[in-house]
Amino acid sequence: MATNRSTKTSSTALRGSAEKKVNATKSGSEDSLATIEAERLLHELQVHQVELEMQNEELQRIREELEVSRNSYSELYDFAPVGYFVFDSRGRIREVNLTGSQLLGVERGALVNRPFTGFISDEGERKVFSDHLRMVLQRKILLRCELSFTGTKGTKIHGRFQSVAFVNHKEGCILTTLFDCTARKQLEEELQRAHDRLELTVGERTRELTSTNLQLTQEIEERRKAEASLQEAFAEIKGLKDRLQAENIYLQQEVGRQHNFGEIIGQSQALGQVFSKIEQVAPMNATVLLLGETGTGKGVVANTIHSRSSRRGRPLITVNCTTLPATLVESELFGRERGAFTGAGDRQIGHFELADGGTIFLDEIGEMPLELQSKLLRVIQDGEFERLGSPRTIKTDVRIIAATNRNLAEEVKNGTFREDLFYRLNVFPITMPPLRQRKDDIPLLVNHFVAKFNSKIGKRIESISKETLNTLEEYHWPGNVRELESVIERAVIMSPGSSLQVLDRFDTFRKAEEPAGEDIRALVELEHDHVLQVLKKTGWRIEGKNGAAVLLGLNASTLRARMRKYGIVRQ
Fold first, then answer.
1. Residue 180 phi/psi, 5° resolution?
2. How far is the C-alpha of 233 from the C-alpha of 267, rounded, in Å?
3. Are 113 and 95 in contact, with CB atoms under 8 Å apart?
4. Which residues contact 501 (CB under 8 A, 6 or more apart)?
5. How many helices (H) and strands (E) does the chain have?
6. What is the pLDDT of residues 387-423, one digit of tens each?
7. What are phi and psi of 151, to 5 degrees?
8. Which of 99, 173, 256, 264 is the most exposed place for a label (fewest CB within 10 A)?
C-alpha cells in the first residue's frame, strides 16, 4: 500500500511537470474551436508522452536500485554467518544459503528438494523436526527447537532452529535460521565431563581424606592409648626398679648378716616334731607362729618353710621388731612418701611391698607397738595398706611368719597385745625346743660350727675330744644354739692345734655367770622347775593378787626376765 501511494504521488508530479512543458511551447495561436480542441488533444498527448517518459525514467531508476538491493541481499543471504533454509510443508529444502550448504557439506544445488530428515539419524530427533515444522505452519509465529544431525562427512552437528512461516504463490513455506551450536555443545559437554570428573575427583578425594582422617583419628587414639600404656608401663617399671633396688639393698644387707646357722641340724625327737610340722605347713599359705626361747633357731625354721613353699621364687623379707626404733617401725614395714615426717627426705618402699608374692618374717612380733598392731591386722585380713604420707591403698600378697620368745596369750591378758591379732597369727604354731631339751643334737651342731668357722677363719680343727663334748652337753645353754655357735667360734679362734679346745674360754664364761659346779647346775634346774610349777598352778598368770610373781616373791618384770632366761614358755 505504501508503494501504490508513492506511485500515485509520482504520477501526479509527472503530469504537473508535463503540463508546464507543454504550456511553455504555446504562442499566438488562433482561438478557433477546432484549433483549441486539437491543441487540447495534442496537449494531452504531449503531456501523456512526457509523463510516460518520465515514468520510464523513474522505473529505470527503481530497477537499478532494486538490482543493487537484490545483489546486496544475495550477498548477505549467501555469506551470512548462520545457515538459512527454506523448507516446504513436507520438510524438503527449497532454498539454502552458502553457509547452510557448507554446514551440511553438500553443494547448494544438490540440496534443493532434498528432505532434511535424511541428515537426521535419530528417530526421536526426526520426530522433533517434523513436529517443529507443523507447529510453525499452524501457529504462524517464530518458534525454536534444538536438533542434532549429521553432515555428509559424518560430522555431528548440534544446532538451534528459529523458524517462521510465509506463503508464496504455490504453497506455504518455512524460513529457518541454522545456528551452529556444535562448538558450544561440545564445550558444554566437555564442561559437563570436566564437572563430572571434578565431582568424581572431589568424591574420591573426599573419601580419601575421610579415610585418612579416620585413620589419623584411630592412630591418634592408638597413640594416646599407647602413651597411656607406656606411662603405666613406665610407672610399673619404675616401681619394679625401686622394688628391685630395695630388694638388692636388702639382700646385700642379708648377705652381710649370716644366718645363725645355715640349716636346721639335729636328729633328736624334739626336733623331729618340728620337722614334721614344717613338712605339713610349708606348702600351704597359712600364717605360722614360731614360739621358743631366744637363740633356738626360729629364723632358720622360717627360712626353711619359705624355701619349701610355692613362694620360694620370691624374696623372704626378715623384720626384727626389737632392732627398729618405735618411731621407724611403721615406715619400715609399710614405707613412706617423701616428706611424710621430719627427716623423711626420700620415698621408701616398705618391707610388705618388697615381700609381695613372697614371705615376710616378723621376728620378735611381741615387741611390736600396740598402735601398729591394728595396721598389721589389716594387712593379714585384707592384704592392703598405705604408705606413710600417701592416701593411695597398696595391695599385697604376702605370707606371714611371725616369731616370739614371749607368751603372747599372757601379753593379751596384760593388754599389751591385741587379742584379734594373736588369733590371726596363731593359725599354725610351732614351738622350738630349747637346746637343753635336745642335747643329743649338740655333737652334730658342734661339728657343723667347727666346719663353718674353719672355712671362715682359715683354721684346721680336725678333732674334738670326748671331754670337750661332755662339757658342752652338760652345760644348761640359756642362750641356746646362738650361744653354742658363739662358744665354738671363740674356741676355733683360740685353739692352738688341730683339736678343739673350749675349756678355758668356757670356764671363763661360766665364771662370769655364777660359780660352776654340779650343785649350781642343780640349783638352776631346781629354780627353773619351781618357777614352771608355780606358773602352771596360777594358770600362767604372772601379775595380780593371785599371780605367780606374788607367790614367788618377785616383781613381775623380774619373773619375766627369769622366764626368758630359762626359756619357760606356756605350752
1. -80, 105
2. 51
3. no
4. 468, 491, 494, 495
5. 20, 14
6. 877 788 889 899 999 999 889 998 899 888 999 999 9
7. -75, 175
8. 256
Instruction: Give the strands of the sheet with 83-88, arranged side by side.
Output: 93-96, 83-88, 172-180, 156-167, 143-150
Q: Are 461 and 495 in contact (CB under 8 A)?
A: yes
- Residue 546's H or E segment, with its range, is none
Higher-confidence residue: 279 or 260? 279
For 60, list phi and psi in degrees, rounded to 5.
-60, -45
179 pLDDT higher than 90: no
| Helix (H), strand (E) at residue 329 | helix 329-334
Residue 209: alpha-carbon gap to chain centroid: 22
Query: Which of 87, 88, 84, 113 lies closest to 97 in space, CA to CA?
Result: 84
298-334 in b/e form (b: 16+ CB < 10 A) is bbbbbbbbbeebebeebbbbbbebeebeeeebbbbbb
- Do the bridges between strand 428-431 and strand 288-291 make them parallel or antiparallel, or are there none, so unpaired? parallel
Q: Whole-model pTM?
A: 0.48
Q: Phi/psi at 390 (nearest 5 deg)? A: -135, 135
Q: What is the pLDDT of residues 38-55, one digit of tens each?
A: 777 777 777 777 777 777
C-alpha span between 305 and 470 (Å, rounded): 33
Cell numbers for 197:
570428573
The confidence score (pLDDT) of residue 189 equals 66
Kindly indicate the confidence band of residue 77, based on its pLDDT and cuts at 50, 70 and 90: low
The rounded mean pLDDT for the chain is 77
**What is the DSSP code string of 361-373?**
EEETGGGS-HHHH
pLDDT for 302 beyond 90: yes
**What's the 3-state SS for 476-507?**
CCCCHHHHHHHHHHHHHHHCCCCEECCHHHHH
Most confident of 101-115, 286-300, 452-466, 512-526: 286-300
- Would you list the domain boundaries of the chain? 2-78, 83-180, 258-433, 458-479+490-566
Specify the CATH number of the domain 258-433: 3.40.50.300
Taking phi over 0 as left and psi of -120 to 50 as alpha, with beta for the rest, 418 belongs to beta
Copy the grid coordinates of residue 212: 585418612
Q: Is 83-180 a domain of CATH 3.90.1030.10? A: no
Q: For 305-309, which contacts have Cβ atoms below 8 Å and span 24 or more sequence positions?
A: 305/278, 305/281, 305/359, 305/401, 306/358, 306/359, 306/361, 306/399, 306/401, 308/278, 308/279, 308/282, 308/283, 309/282, 309/283, 309/284, 309/285, 309/359, 309/399
Instruction: Determine how many CB atoms are found less than 10 A away from the CB of residue 192.
Output: 10
DSSP H/E element including 246: helix 182-256
